[in-house]
early light-induced protein 1 chloroplastic
Amino acid sequence: MFNRPGSFSQISNGGATWFVGTSLLPSVASLIPLFKGVSAESKSEGVMTSDAEMWNGRFAMVGVVAFAFTEYVSGRTLV
């Protein structure tokens, strides 16, 4: 199998620039509706409500932190 470096190793070896670069574009793009005056609440209907999306985002953030923590504790990459 391949010997891949872990998340922390990748970030410390120049990956921080790539991380910021790839995170910046979607972050800025998500602000465009706000600048146009469109709110999440005005577009919420059915199952896809703004509250549901907020919880999805929170669970995703917890998952990413758990993934990084597991890599750190085990000392191995998971992917």
Remarks:
- Residues 39-74 form one domain.
- The mean pLDDT is 78.
- The longest helix spans residues 50-74.
- The CA atoms of residues 8 and 14 lie 11 Å apart.
